[in-house]
Amino acid sequence: MFFKENLRYLRKKNHLSQVDMARMLDYKSFTTIQKWEDGSSTPKYDVLIRIADHFNVSIDDLLRKELKEKQI
What we know:
Elements: H1 3-13, H2 18-24, H3 31-38, H4 45-55, H5 59-64
């Protein structure tokens, strides 16, 4: 599963901080994003949909493919 690496990659590629990402997803703190990126937790399905939509990738790509290698 590549979610944590892909999230960090997409966030940085789009010049978003963890704080920016948290605000975008209506979280009060960046620590939720930090936990997703370090692999200690994962978002619920509805949040995965929002993340995938925001970055214009499929949920399958977000979870199962190494996006650093893929042309986005």
